[in-house]
Structure prediction request, 198 residues.
Amino acid sequence: MRTRHIVGAVVAALAVPLTFAFPASSHGWVTTPPSRAALCDVHTSGVPWDCGDIQWEPQSVEGPKGFPALGPSDGTICAGGNARFAELDAPHAGAWPTTPVTAGQSLTFTWKFTARHATSDFRYYLTKPGYDAGQPITRANLELTPFLTVPYGGKQVPSTLSHTATVPSGRTGHQVVVAVWTIADTANAFYSCTDVRF
Prediction:
């Protein structure tokens, strides 16, 4: 009987550290066109610099919801306000790889999810004309009215989901799309920045 209690105690003691050793399966990110998190993914190697922690968990760019009135502070939007992923906010002198786009044409954004949260909506914002890609993203250099809003009514997302938008006009050169996935039943949202070139 005593042996059974000792074995049980050992198993319980080992289980606690193992529980904390593995992060939760987290959440979601834009894979197409490739977001900064997707480009940093260790399986992609889309950038020539060290991306830090985000390379291991591109799905984890989670921050406070309520953007643009609330949410991450200016200069930390692409990382969702999370200092662990600050590399996503570094402009690298405008050297983030871009996806070619044409104003007035369709562009499809695809999300990949590792946790299927109940969802309020998805919103897509674009930088203003004249945006300097060598600067971090702030509210002052974003159009604060989304060019695409997709209501989701509290439903759970599938494992992947795509939204197609008409690319706004009046832009040239390197611009950034900020995609926000707002969770219905938590205080958070997920942020994903994609660099495009008109």
